């Protein structure tokens, strides 16, 4: 019912910034909570940041103060502004739509690589 497309990933030096976008289409009218997840090789997929339809946000401790999640409901688009990037931020970043507390729809992922 929902299709998600991420964009904005790439290669950046440590200390740099990237802005990820997630465009949602389909049955977007009923979306409540969205989030960004990331997965590095050999690691579990982890929640980076989440945002509700009302604008409430939460962040993983590792990115708090550096990343900012936001959404534009009129455009059905979610963003992740990533500042002060570190090599340990290197991962594939995924956009997700949560139904209740469970991820139900995923984007294809976008690679973020932070070099030293």
Layout of secondary structure:
Blueprint: E1 2-7, E2 10-13, E3 18-26, E4 33-39, E5 46-52, E6 57-59, E7 67-72, E8 77-82, E9 91-99, E10 102-106, E11 110-115
Parallel strand pairs: 2-11
Antiparallel strand pairs: 1-3, 3-8, 4-5, 4-9, 5-6, 7-8, 9-10, 9-11
Descriptive overview:
The protein is an all-beta fold and 116 residues long. Helix content is 0%, strand content 59%. Strand 4 (33-39) and strand 5 form a beta hairpin. It is globular. The mean pLDDT is 95.
Helical content band: under 10%
Looking at how many chains there are and whether they match, the oligomeric state comes to single chain
According to DSSP, the number of beta strands is 11
Beta strand %: over 45%
H/E element sequence: EEEEEEEEEEE
Distance between the termini: 40 Å
Shape: globular
Could you tell me the mean pLDDT? Answer: 95
* Biggest sheet layout: 7 strands, mixed
Q: Taking Cα atoms only, what radius of gyration do you get, to the nearest Å?
A: 13 Å
Main structural class: mainly beta
Low-pLDDT segments: none
What's the number of helices? Answer: 0
Question: What keywords describe this structure?
Answer:
7-stranded mixed sheet, mainly beta, 11 strands, 116 residues
């Amino acid at each position: 019912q929902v299709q998600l497309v991420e964009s904005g990933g790439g290669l950046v030096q440590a200390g740099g910034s990237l802005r990820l976008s997630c465009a949602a289409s389909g049955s977007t009218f009923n979306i409540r909570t969205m989030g960004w997840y990331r997965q590095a090789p050999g690691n579990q997929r982890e929640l980076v940041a989440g945002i509700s339809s009302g604008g409430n946000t939460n962040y993983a401790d590792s990115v708090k103060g550096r990343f900012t999640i936001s959404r534009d409901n009129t455009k059905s688009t979610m963003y992740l502004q990533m500042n002060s990037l570190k090599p340990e931020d290197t991962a594939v970043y995924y956009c997700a739509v949560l139904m209740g507390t469970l991820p139900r729809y995923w984007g294809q992922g976008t690679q973020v690589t932070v070099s030293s």
